[in-house]
Amino acid sequence: MKKYLMTGIAAVAMCAAFTSCSHEIDQVSQEDLNKMAAEKVVNDYNQAFISAFGQPAANQTWGFGTTATRSYNVQGNLWHKPKPEGFNLEYDTPVTTEEKNMVFNYVNNPTQVETVEQISFTQYWVTQIWNGKNDENADGVKAPASISYRDQNGATTSVVGGGNMDQLRIKETADGDWVHCNNFNSANNTNYQEGGLGGRTLMISSGTYSFQCINSDGSHYSTKYIIVPGAKIHSSLKDFYYVCFDFEKGYTAEEQAAERSYGTCEIWKPQDNPDGGYWQKNENWNLPGFYKDANSAELKALLEAQKGTKVQNITFKGYQEGQHHFPGDGNYTDWIVRISPAKEISSSDYDGRIMAEDLSAQEFGDFDFNDVVFDYKLLGNQEAKIQLRAAGGTLELYVGGTRSDDWKTITGGQEVHDAFNHAPVNQMINTGVTTEPEPATFNVDCANNEPVNIKIWVKKNGVFHELTAHTGQPASKFRTACTTKWCDEYISISNPYPLFKNWVNDTNFTEWTTTQFNAIYADKNLENNTNAIKGGY
Predict the structure, then answer these.
(1) Quick one: pLDDT at residue 4?
(2) What is the DSSP string of 227-267?
(3) What is the model's pTM?
(4) Domain boundaries, position 238
(5) Has residue 505 been placed in a domain?
(6) Which of 124, 135, 393, 474 is the most exposed place for a label (fewest CB within 10 A)?
């Protein structure tokens, strides 16, 4: 029986012993047992890793790094420049008059509009499509006529909705902040057009949880919008989403004051004794129609008349929120912007290669990091395209997917051996033992478009463990270039890459994959490996 299995049984026995010793201790749950077993497996792996390669550098991110700093209003001349100076991004289809016409005419017919609730992009373009204040934005169509509403005095006033909307704002996540999408003001963006009819802004490491704009007349934040998938409009627009706003008129500060203004003050409470009394704090007050300095003599006089006594220390807190003058007309053509994924330009079909170890190295000592090898391509919508290259492990292993609550199954991922012509789990593939053609590609979730978040799961002791790459800790996966060759079977990664250990300890050894590379240990010919040190240490 293998060491880690014995450890799991010992843990169960230990928990059972504790449970029987005292009625005060609840029976250990299966979830707790799973966590205890996982900690043991990971701790054994980490100890073996440190024994082989030393303690990882505190800033070692295993090739993944991060792009988690939000940015926007990026200069257009940086969009297509190679990294690190620029962003190396593809430019999606420029806005055309034909697109404006198709989008407007579709949205302008509310009976046909199909929508979605949210978009999942975190790196994306925001592009101006339509501004309802200007009838010349497209040929052959007209923006809705002026919108009429009643003001607080009952008088009818007319405006063009798009002419009273300002500041496109985006809420990145459910608990995130509202950020101003730079350059989108007055329901328009004329910056960075790059040949298109609409200006655009680049959002990086952001989010698309919710949208809003401001009524520039009353400073009312409006989230009255719909999201229309371009595919519902025309096949040529299938990669786009359109955020479409319906103008709603909110009260101005003066108009809200006409409804009711409020605050607190101190009032004088006289006693029976003509010379006695005291000041009572935190007395609430409400006055309709007042919109002036809280310290003014007029407000003091009004409050003393209302309270029937002297007042002091007046605090003005604001206005009671009035109802909208105009809640919208149900036509979402007042302001329309396009949201589309920002995709990186790559000289390769893939952005990088991930190599992983299935946590069994403490038993065999090989640390070959070929138990699964795959290339990935970030798709810009929190998804990644995966191309498997090798599966050198003999345990059930998935790329992508979600682990069940009992840790026994993976939903939505791809088992790597099965992807190679339904090979059995105990078959080593493309590492010098057996060779199979490359399997078909598949897509997986990639949270925040960070490749470190591509899930890898391996089954040990009947439950699935996640392979990780935490900064400054022993890693069970790392990222490298697509040109990096993976290790032959049965030997350590230190054989083809003698500087791997140096890189573990010092992130300045960035050329560890190309310097002192011993190709015979990564050529899938095991006959060349007789002089290799199995454990590499």
Answers:
(1) 29
(2) EEEHHHH-GGGTT-EEEEE---BPPPHHHHHHH-EEEEEEE
(3) 0.55
(4) 91-250+326-341
(5) yes
(6) 135
